[in-house]
């Protein structure tokens, strides 16, 4: 029997869930008054739950790139599980799927990123990067290079070490995480909020210079690496101003600072190229991948190392004292390979560049006329609709007013899932989204904005 065949079953599930399930990124007190929403199935861009069908413009959490519910993926997982349900990759052991996936990723990745370490989540890939960066500098005989530069508005994970990278103090304070001496934050290249009268190019220069200034202030001899998402997805789909990334890469090279690019969201096609490094014209020393690697069908992530970085890690004989039981899991690796095959066979990334990406951009930009909308940012199939109180001064609504949450809730009533982040509505739909689904999204969003604007007139 399906778990939610009747209402009693839904209530039963909600009750046992509330009693025993501690949810990530959820206020447990709020769960006491409002039960969890039970999602039961999904297909294409639609998720179903509690008798409703919703258009998921977030692809889960920006991961279900090939769309939900593909039979081919289920068959691949079943076959992989029958053949080799598990074996590890410690102590010089491999299996066909892990070897082929590493080879495929090396072929796809830009620059000299040719070596892959497998993990299970974006956080683990970034955590691995942090450890290997320390390892690298110790092996290079530069033990003082320990400080990581990160940025405001960044999100890199929720382990102890990756939380410290995040530009969100709400992720530090409740856990007593101290960043001082380990991580230094510099400004986000958030042109709309901080650009003032500067041109995009001038702002790119300004934001890149903030990194150089910080390196000089602390001393290049103490800076191990700079970490950044090509587009700062989680905290507002913040797009880099033109020229920013090549400048950042140049600064890192100049001061012998490693560049770790977090392509957990942007990697595997979201910007219309396999990797956002191609979109923005730069190359990193390390790259983390997760979400789109398997389109969320299995937990798997990867950290890719450049040849020169890998050379140092592999130079002297010593066991690498790092790894996870399920690193390179045979089922997850087989599923990731099938995901890549589908992306290639259906030309889903090419479609973003030539067809559906431009349609998405043009459709969302019609919202610019709305009195609540200050900016619309779109790159491939990731987008931000930035709300403002005043289109000229770009004044922000106080976060505690929950204006953006109000719009997202109103959108939910129209059966649309978008993600509120501060005063920004973030969207990153499956690559399979159709033009009519985009129309449905933009029409629904437009009336959600109308409802919120009308409500604000009574404040
Ligand atoms: C850019 C980026 N890096 C890392 C992570 C962490 O990934 P995970 O949640 O799989 O640990 C996320 C998750 O949203 C992310 O957006």
Protein described:
- The chain has a seven-stranded mixed beta sheet, sandwiched between helices. Strands 1-2-3-13 form a four-stranded mixed beta sheet. A four-stranded antiparallel beta sheet has the order 11-12-15-14, with helices on one face.
- The protein folds into two domains: 39-66 and 347-457, Aspartate Aminotransferase, domain 1, CATH 3.90.1150; 72-345, 3-Layer(aba) Sandwich (Aspartate Aminotransferase, domain 2).
- The protein is an alpha/beta fold and 459 residues long.
- It is built from 16 helices and 15 strands.
- The radius of gyration is 22 Å and the shape is globular.
- The model has no long low-confidence stretch (mean pLDDT 96).
- It has helices at residues 7-20, 28-33, 59-62, 71-83, 96-108, 122-139, 160-165, 191-194, 200-218, 244-254, 276-280, 307-315, 330-345, 348-365, 403-413, 435-457; strands spanning 41-43, 46-49, 52-56, 113-119, 147-151, 183-186, 223-228, 258-262, 286-289, 301-306, 373-379, 382-387, 416-417, 419-421, 424-427.
- α5 (96-108) packs across α13 and α15 (403-413) crosses α16 (435-457).
- β2 and β3 (52-56) form a beta hairpin.
- Bound molecules: pyridoxal-5'-phosphate (PLP).
- Residues 61, 121-123, 126, 155-157, 229, 233-234, 262, 264-265, 290 line the site of pyridoxal-5'-phosphate (PLP).
Q: Spell out which ligands are present.
A: pyridoxal-5'-phosphate
Basic shape: globular
**Gyration radius, in Å:** 22 Å
CATH topology of the largest domain: Aspartate Aminotransferase, domain 2
CATH top level of the largest domain is Alpha Beta
* Low-pLDDT residue spans: none
CATH superfamily of the largest domain: Type I PLP-dependent aspartate aminotransferase-like (Major domain)
Mean pLDDT: 96
By secondary-structure content and strand pairing, the structural class works out as: alpha/beta
DSSP helical segment count: 16
The major beta sheet can be summarized as: 7 strands, mixed
Number of domains: 2
List the strand order in the largest sheet. 4-10-9-8-7-5-6
The CATH architecture of the largest domain would be 3-Layer(aba) Sandwich
Portion of residues within helices: 40-55%
What fraction strand?
15-25%
End-to-end distance:
48 Å
Task: Find the count of extended strands (DSSP E, 2+ residues).
Answer: 15
Family: Belongs to the class-III pyridoxal-phosphate-dependent aminotransferase family.
InterPro entries: Aminotrans_3 (IPR005814), Aminotrans_3_PPA_site (IPR049704), PyrdxlP-dep_Trfase (IPR015424), PyrdxlP-dep_Trfase_major (IPR015421), PyrdxlP-dep_Trfase_small (IPR015422)
Cofactor: pyridoxal 5'-phosphate
Organism: Kordiimonas sediminis
């Amino acid at each position: 029997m399906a778990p939610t065949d009747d209402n009693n079953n839904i209530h039963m599930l909600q009750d046992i869930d509330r009693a025993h399930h501690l949810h990530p990124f959820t206020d447990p007190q709020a769960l006491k008054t409002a039960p969890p929403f039970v999602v039961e199935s999904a297909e294409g861009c639609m998720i179903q739950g509690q008798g409703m069908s919703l258009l998921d413009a977030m692809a889960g959490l920006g991961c279900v790139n090939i769309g939900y519910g593909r039979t081919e993926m289920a068959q691949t997982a079943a076959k992989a599980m029958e053949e080799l349900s598990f074996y590890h990759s410690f102590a010089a052991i491999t299996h066909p799927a892990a070897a082929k996936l590493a080879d495929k990723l090396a072929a796809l990745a830009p620059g000299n990123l040719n070596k892959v370490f497998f993990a299970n989540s974006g956080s683990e890939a970034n955590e691995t990067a942090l450890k290997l960066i320390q390892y690298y500098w110790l092996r290079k005989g530069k033990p003082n290079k320990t400080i990581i530069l990160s940025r405001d508005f960044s999100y890199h994970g929720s382990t102890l070490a990756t939380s410290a990278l995040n530009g969100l103090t709400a992720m530090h304070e409740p856990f007593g995480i101290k960043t001082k001496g380990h991580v230094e934050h510099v400004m986000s290249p958030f042109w709309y909020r901080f650009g003032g009268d500067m041109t995009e190019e001038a702002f790119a220069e300004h934001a890149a210079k903030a990194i150089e200034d910080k390196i000089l202030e602390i001393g290049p001899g103490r800076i191990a690496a700079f970490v950044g998402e090509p587009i700062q997805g989680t905290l507002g789909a913040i797009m880099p101003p033109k020229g920013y990334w090549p400048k950042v890469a140049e600064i890192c090279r100049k001061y012998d600072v490693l560049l770790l690019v977090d392509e957990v969201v942007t990697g595997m096609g979201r910007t219309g190229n396999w990797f956002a490094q191609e979109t923005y014209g730069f190359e990193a020393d390390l790259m983390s991948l997760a979400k789109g690697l398997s389109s969320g069908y299995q937990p798997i992530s990867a950290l890719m190392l450049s040849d020169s970085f890998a050379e140092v890690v592999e130079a002297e004989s010593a066991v690498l004292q790092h790894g996870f039981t399920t690193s390179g899991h045979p089922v997850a690796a087989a599923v990731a390979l099938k995901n890549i095959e589908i992306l290639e066979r259906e030309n889903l990334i090419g479609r973003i560049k030539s067809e559906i990406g431009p349609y998405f951009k043009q459709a969302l930009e019609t919202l610019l006329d709305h009195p609540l909308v200050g900016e619309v940012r779109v790159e491939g199939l990731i987008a931000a609709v930035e709300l403002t109180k005043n289109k000229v001064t770009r004044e922000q609504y106080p976060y505690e007013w929950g204006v953006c949450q109000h719009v997202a809730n109103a959108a939910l009533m129209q059966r649309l899932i978008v993600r509120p982040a501060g005063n920004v509505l973030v969207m990153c739909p499956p690559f399979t989204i159709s033009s009519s689904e985009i129309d449905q999204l933009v029409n629904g969003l437009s009336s959600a904005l109308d409802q919120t604007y009308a409500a604000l007139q009574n404040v």
